[in-house]
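Write out this protein's structure.
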Amino acid sequence: MDNPQIADRLDAFASLLELVEANPYTTRAYRRAAETIRDAPFPVAELVTSGRVRELRGIGPGIETRLRELVETGAIAELAELERELAPDLVGLGRYLGLGAKRSVELARALGVRTADELREAAAAGRLRTVPGIGPKTEARLLEALAREGEPRSRRGLLLSRAWELVGGVAAALDGEAAGDVRRWRDSCELLSVVCAAPDPRSVLAHFVALPQVVALVEQGERRAVGVTVEGVPIELVAADPNRFGTALVRATGSGAYVAALEPLPEAPHEEAVYRALDLPWCPPELREEPFRGEPPALVELEDIRGDLHCHTTWSDGKASVEDMARAAQGRGYDYLAICDHTPAVGAVRGLTPDDVRRQAEEIAAANELLAPFRVLRGIECDILPDGRLDLPDNVLAELEWVQASVHGGQRMPRRELTKRVEEALRNPYVRCLSHPKGRYINRRPENALDLERVFDVALEEGIALEVNGLPDRLDLRGEHVRDAIRAGVQIVCSTDAHSVRGLGNMALSVATARRGWATAAHVVNTRPLRSILDGPRAAY
């Protein structure tokens, strides 16, 4: 078995463990192991057979046993048993309809059905109302949801990282192209789509149905299908005629408003030909939200980034040492990396005191000696206290090369008070950047009430940049706010807030979010050489 096949089986096992409400730590362990195996640059099956697989991070004795069984027999017996018992296609459909896994199983047992198709037949026959706990309103809601099955829209937006993992995996398996919200790099993805060039659509559709990610089919036509994952997430497949592949990709990528403004779309084998036929310049997918027919700017590229200015280490809540993070950043081709661990007021995790900051300086100096000319910057993510003061004294901040100010507690403060708090902090002469300004967690916590227009004014006066935080559940500033910042003349920083070596990869999410805000390399501080960073805030403008 190759690495993706092994990883897919572990992911499937994790999903079914979730359905039986297994220990969440166990479920997460299997998902992390799947990620490790999928990204491994060598055949993991060989490590399993040689008894060395536990050398991989996150692989303990329990997972090793499952891997040995999988590699030796091609299956995991417990996974097969769970699939028989839980009928993943039925659970996937249930979740798509808004039912929890447990309720889906209870419903199936009450109706005496085993598959998604049998559930549909029972619903169409009016048998839902015979199930205890399902009254007329619930029945009507489920029937309405079933009637909308063919719409490839998730009931709750997926985080961009998870959506890319899901859609990217399907696209790779089918030799297709990711489309929908994922290709536009939306922070929360509802429309998941893959487009393939298919002279004979039947083989592609059959492959799609057989993928481990797809547990139920809710619609199938000659060149289109909609499948559902075990989590209840719908994915659309478009198997386009090769001569119309470009047209299908444009249509499946853009928002409804964007595509409608271009209609009627000419038939063409690739996107560039579609735009030429429309007498328009090619438009990057990130800008295909609102109707737009002009010349797009030269957006910032991932390759333009010369360093990451926000990451954490084991000094606070990170998982890697200063040297490990620095070597990983150097391996990405960066010139510099700022270590920005927390300060004590963050509360939930360990924060650095003034003594800690100075002791950390020794470790940073040692890393710089080893890795020169690569440079590790002494930085901090310093909490903004409720009265606007910073969590470390100025004489400590003065020693540092990069200071990020952050609000963690008090995100629900009234607009005026929160804005005053942040403004006071931004006027500190040592602050260089405001971290995750709107304090949101996608799908978990809304944006705070911070008055960004006022913050832009102060940032411009003081030479402060605003962060585009690359954590998948933050992506803060979001695209619309990046565009507002740029219009106001404020610089941005694309950073990852990485808490591990792997987390440095979230720069792709940060850059894509900046691109959604029409940012060019000139708007992004860390596209500049180290000297510009060290010379101070005004030098960056």
